[in-house]
């Protein structure tokens, strides 16, 4: 797209920090004590664009709190769609995700966030009408995951610390002398080993931990597309999720409702196996290149990239994972797959 001198825009789109996007407000958070949100955002985004948008619409924000942050992002995106008319625009709205984490998947707060999301999408569509680009615009509304309600946490690193397999810090993290270490993905977790031979004992411990649904070995995890360097991939039962924490009273404990909203304290999480029952997300397509009134019963998240590439007319030198959703696109042929 850059070679064709096409303008692009992204608003809190994941993994775009430092990207060569024409108008970029990157999703990034400070993770070092010597920096702050303003500095990391300026460095990761298009600085002049970020400053201009914040000058015009910064009054809508309350830091990075929701739902105000999505109000700010929507205003910036509407402004950009109307006045800059990017060829490709990526917009990440997080309000509903945040409310599901805090209050639960089908809570009143999540439902209210869904209504706000609907209104924001309407404003974005209206912006293309006002800009005169609606008739040429293909829209894709998608979620990157669903969520499951939880009420218990599993602290595997606490179990490993009890056995001397790692050393906890006073802050509840892990020193670098570990032999066994768990890295959470919320509904599942990776387990890594280093200079550790007793895999049978480790696997038994994992399988006997309350709330664990399944333990997959390295070969099985790699075949599913997981990190090939992990020793095990562990799946939680519905209602449970993993943390990276140590210095906890128990390996498995209930989530204190008063702690919800604090780091790693949730009422709804994602990160489970995609094959978990009733665990789906959504893709809605509309526009001049999209067939009308089509329903595709099943697809995978990795099918989105080749489908979007087909919509954009973008070709890659190597085949992408997944398959183009040909049944959704006008004029698509199996050569695109």
TrEMBL record:
UniProt GO molecular function: hydrolase activity
InterPro entries on file: Alkaline_phosphatase_core_sf, Phosphodiest/P_Trfase
PANTHER family for the chain: BIS(5'-ADENOSYL)-TRIPHOSPHATASE, ECTONUCLEOTIDE PYROPHOSPHATASE/PHOSPHODIESTERASE
Name of the protein described by the UniProt record: Uncharacterized protein of the AP superfamily
Organism name: Levilactobacillus brevis (strain ATCC 367 / BCRC 12310 / CIP 105137 / JCM 1170 / LMG 11437 / NCIMB 947 / NCTC 947)
């Amino acid at each position: 797209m850059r070679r064709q001198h096409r303008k692009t825009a992204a608003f809190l789109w994941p993994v775009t920090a430092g990207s060569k996007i024409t108008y970029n407000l990157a999703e990034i958070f400070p993770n070092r004590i010597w920096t702050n949100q303003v500095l990391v955002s300026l460095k990761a985004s298009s600085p002049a664009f970020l400053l201009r948008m914040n000058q015009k619409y910064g009054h809508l924000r309350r830091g990075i709190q929701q739902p105000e942050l999505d109000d700010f992002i929507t205003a910036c995106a509407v402004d950009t769609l109307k006045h800059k008319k990017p060829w490709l625009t990526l917009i990440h709205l997080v309000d509903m995700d945040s409310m599901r984490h805090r209050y639960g998947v089908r809570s009143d707060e999540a439902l209210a966030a869904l209504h706000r999301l609907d209104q924001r999408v309407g404003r974005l569509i209206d912006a293309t009408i006002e800009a005169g680009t609606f008739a040429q615009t293909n829209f894709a509304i998608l979620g990157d995951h669903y969520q499951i309600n939880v009420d218990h946490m599993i602290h595997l690193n606490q179990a490993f610390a009890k056995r001397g397999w790692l050393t906890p810090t006073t802050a509840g993290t892990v020193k670098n002398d570990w032999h066994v270490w768990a890295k959470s993905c919320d509904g599942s977790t990776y387990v890594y080993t280093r200079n550790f031979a007793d895999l049978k004992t480790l696997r038994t411990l994992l399988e006997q931990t309350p709330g664990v649904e399944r333990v997959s070995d390295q070969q099985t995890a790699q075949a599913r597309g997981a990190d090939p360097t992990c020793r095990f991939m562990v799946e939680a039962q519905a209602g449970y999720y993993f943390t990276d924490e140590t210095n906890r009273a128990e390996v498995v404990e209930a989530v204190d409702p008063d702690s919800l909203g604090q780091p790693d304290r949730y009422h709804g999480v994602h990160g489970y196996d995609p094959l978990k029952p009733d665990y789906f997300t959504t893709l809605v397509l509309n526009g001049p290149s999209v067939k009308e009134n089509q329903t595709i019963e099943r697809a995978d998240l990795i099918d989105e990239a080749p489908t979007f590439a087909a919509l954009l007319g973008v070709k890659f030198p190597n085949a992408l994972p997944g398959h183009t959703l040909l049944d959704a696109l006008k004029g698509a042929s199996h050569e695109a797959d």
